[in-house]
Structures are given as C-alpha cells and as structure tokens.
Design goal:
Elements: H1 5-11, E1 17-21, H2 27-36, E2 43-47, E3 68-76, H3 81-102, E4 107-110, E5 114-117, E6 120-131, E7 137-147, H4 169-183, H5 189-194, E8 202-207, E9 210-219, E10 225-229, E11 234-237, E12 242-246
Parallel strand pairs: 1-2
Antiparallel strand pairs: 2-3, 3-7, 4-5, 5-6, 6-7, 8-9, 8-12, 9-10, 10-11
The chain binds biotin.
Biotin binds near residues 26, 50, 54 and 61.
Length: about 250
C-alpha cells in the first residue's frame, strides 16, 4: 500500500475511520458521497492519486499518483456555519506546523489557506460542508493536498511546488490530522499571523470582477485579511469572495 495504514492508525490520537484509495476521482467528492449515503462518525480518506482533484474557486488540483498526500477529513460538527470558516485557518496552521516539525523547511501561509515554501505553493486546502435538510451543517470536509515529490505542474497550477524530500506519508498525515483536531477549537491565530505570507505585501485582489490594489496590514481576529486601500481607507477581505495575488 502507498501508505502504512497501521502506523497511521496508531499515531492518530482521535477515533476516525481510515479509508485508503490507490486512485479516486476526489477524496472530497467521495467524502461527501459517504456522508450523504449515511456513513457515521469521523472519517479520514487518503488517496495515492486523484483523477478529478478539486481546488477552491472551481479550479482543479493536480494530483498525480504516487507524488503527494491527498486526503479529506470528515468532522461531525454542531451545525454552525462559522465552525467551517475557523477550521479552514486551523487546517492551514496544522499543515504548516507539521511541515516545520518533520522537516527543516520554512513554510508560510498565503491567506487564506495555501501553504507555500518560498514562492511555490506546496499545499492547498478545500473545506466544504455537508448540509442537513433543515439548513444546518451535518459535517465539515477538510480536503488537504500536499505536493511531496510532484515533478512538474500543468499550466493551471503554475506556482506549484513540492516539499521535494523523502518523508513518511503516514507520519505527515498523522501530524496534520492530530494538529487539525487539536486546533479546531481555536488557539491558532497567533501562529497563523506569524506565518502569514501576505502581511506587509502589496497585493491585487479581485472582488465581483473588479481588481483593486491594496497593502496588507494583517489578519483580523476572524481570519479576515486587513488591507489599506490606495485612497487611504481600510477594509477587511473575507475568504470566498476575493482572490488575491502578490504584486
Ligand atoms: C486549492 O488549492 O484551492 C485547494 C486544493 C485542495 C486539494 C485537496 S486534495 C484532497 C482533497 N480532494 C480534493 O479534490 N481536493 C482536496
């Protein structure tokens, strides 16, 4: 098997059902199918490759077999939408910390939840929710894709990069997943701010099709991107509604 399931199960500190797939369309899509067809409890799906890996803003996530860690954690939550937003930042911190703990690399978080090494994106995170008919949230799916030894990237993933080292995938997965559980309740903002790649940078953000120039001044308590606009006014950008690039 592409990952040592026994050692991963031993290293996981929480009760979660582990499902391994040599190749699948998307672990997030499969996680949703499982929840919607009645699977109970927390689930961790890991694939060696994905044929339809999905990213934020409807983009694809390049996931060639044998080169990365593609996983989705299904958490049962209490029905509040805010929980999902916080978990997105917590997941980025969990990935960043796991890379710092297990390697000598210096990862940073590009708001809202991409993890970079230098100017290359090595990890993307896609958090989705599964709703109940009453409108509340039934489960949160945290999809995490880490490029470990992906040799090259297609044009749509032009800033893609890899960790480029030998790392035990079970150890990396356990460090990330234990981190997500440990941080899901809060306490990650200070680390997030210290590792924020955009703070102090000039950016261009696109909202409702309009491109605006701004300077990033920090991350607010709710995980929003605090910016100074060219006319001297301040604004806070919330994830989902904007895409950001460094100028
Ligand atoms: C992004 O970069 O915009 C987010 C990428 C998220 C990729 C992961 S890989 C595992 C899980 N399954 C998916 O289809 N997507 C997420």
């Amino acid at each position: 098997m592409f990952i040592n399931g026994d050692s991963l199960k031993k290293a996981l500190k929480h009760d979660v059902r582990l499902l391994l797939y040599p190749v699948i369309d998307s672990t997030n899509t499969e996680a949703r199918r499982l929840v919607e067809s009645g699977a109970q409890g927390d689930l961790l799906l890991i694939a060696d490759g994905q044929t339809g890996g999905r990213g934020r803003h409807g983009k694809s996530f390049y996931s060639p077999k044998g080169t990365g860690l593609y996983m989705s954690l299904v958490l049962r939550r209490d029905g509040k939408a805010e929980t999902a937003q916080g978990i997105t930042c917590a997941a980025a911190v969990a990935v960043c910390r796991a890379i710092e703990e297990l390697t000598a690399l210096k990862p940073q978080i590009k708001w809202v939840n991409d993890v970079y090494i230098g100017d290359k994106k090595v990890c993307g995170i896609l958090c989705e929710t599964v709703g109940s008919p009453d409108g509340s949230i039934k489960a949160v799916i945290i999809g995490i894709g880490i490029n470990i030894k992906t040799p090259d990237f297609p044009e749509y993933a032009e800033i893609g990069g890899s960790l480029n080292l030998d790392i035990d995938r079970a150890e990396l997965a356990a460090a990330v997943i234990n981190g997500v559980y440990g941080l899901a309740g809060g306490g990650y903002m200070e680390y997030y701010r210290r590792h924020s790649m955009l703070t102090g940078k000039e950016i261009e953000f696109v909202k409702n099709g309009v491109s605006t120039h701004a300077k990033v001044v920090g991350i607010d308590s709710g995980g929003g991107l605090a910016v100074l606009l060219e006319d001297g006014s301040s604004a806070t950008l919330t994830s989902g509604e904007v895409s950001v690039r460094i100028r």
